[in-house]
Amino acid sequence: MRRRSPAARGAAHDGTDAVATLDVSCKHRMPESQQQDAQRRWHQRCWLLFAALSVVVRPPSALFWAAVSLHQLTVQQGLGQRLGLVADGVSIGGSCLGLALIADRLGYGRWVFVPWEFLRFNLLSGQSAAYGSHPWHWNFSQGFPAVAATLLPLLLLGVGLSHDRRLAALAGLSLAVYSLPAHKEFRFLLPALQLAMPYSGVALLWLWHQGQPQGRSLNSGGNGEGAPTSAFRSQPNTGRGARATKGQRQWGWQRAGVAAVLALTAAVQVAMAAYFSLVQHRGLLQVPQEIRGMWELHPSNTSALFLTQCHATPWYSHVHAPIPMRFMDCSAPACQHDMAVSTGSVAVAVVTPCLTQQDLFKRAPAGFLQEVFSQNSRLPSAIVAYDDQRLPTSGCQPAVAVHGVLVRAGYAVHKRISNCWWQTDGDTPCSIMMYVLQ
Q1: Sign of the four-CA dihedral 294, 295, 301, 307
Q2: Cβ atoms 182, 153 nearer than 8 A
Q3: Cα gap 194→227, rounded to integer Å
Q4: Which range among 264-278, 331-345, 346-360 shows the weakest confidence by mean pLDDT?
Q5: What is the pTM of this model?
């Protein structure tokens, strides 16, 4: 048997070690790739889970997540990743919606699919108009400009300057979809405002860099060749130095102007936030505290009737006491249609007006209150109403003051609560009256 030399054995060992090293490295690379894929699937399933939960809690959020899901579907690499995204979305979304369907079945006593009911009520049947209606362009012409306030010019400028307008497109889609129902509110536009806010930063950055001397570095504070700022001042008598000094002065004025714009915008926003958080409709938050105080003094003889807008106060979430309370119902009623025959034997449909309790109260406050008092053996110990609320009755009868009706029923003014400084809503005056039964 022929023996190999030490050099040959060393060469053989080197080759074996190289093959072994390559084999081990391949074994380590494959699990790493699988681990990255597993981590990607885990992150994908997490955001799909949160998306499904947000749709269950708030069905309109499906608008945003549908757009995000379609975008993610287009950026997936290969058919396998796209099918994986679809499979995860169907399984996770279907599971969450199924659990929500079972929970609603237990709560309502019948099968109710809340997202469908939301779509049917607000868009298909148009019953949301019972809570107030606005023209189709209100979100664009009045709603969003009012919500954005002083940020609107910056938002528009930032959208025009940005190369990535996906967030702006999503915000525009939200405004367009929310324009379809007749009922519109400012709070419906807040998600679109959040999506558009980054563009205000783009506009401010662009304004900050306008007028900057050419060749000046934004980071180092020097010129384009890395020279310090003092290089502009070393040759004051040359044309280059004079131009640089002039450019610096212009840039200084530009920065001062941008700082002034930013300070003004921030000051207006802070002032608005303080007013709307501490003053506007503050009385509606103070009323439950007053009723809570009455209950602490007379636990067994405290009840309340609210003649304000429905859902105007935070209710039991602020009272935290077993006090019998009632407010006017503003649920959309079912319209009744009766048939009548005229002189010419022509059938004419007589439509009964769709009236809520709040509508009945506005038409005839005295009659509404008398009916409420007659249906209850005990009168409420406290009644909350707007100050000097005069609402027209049906027909051409004169206005009836709620104050006079309550005084004749045996109530006296307990406290006047400030609700705002300027009345911006015709249905919400700036003072709230609390009446107590004598």
Answers
A1: positive
A2: no
A3: 41
A4: 331-345
A5: 0.67
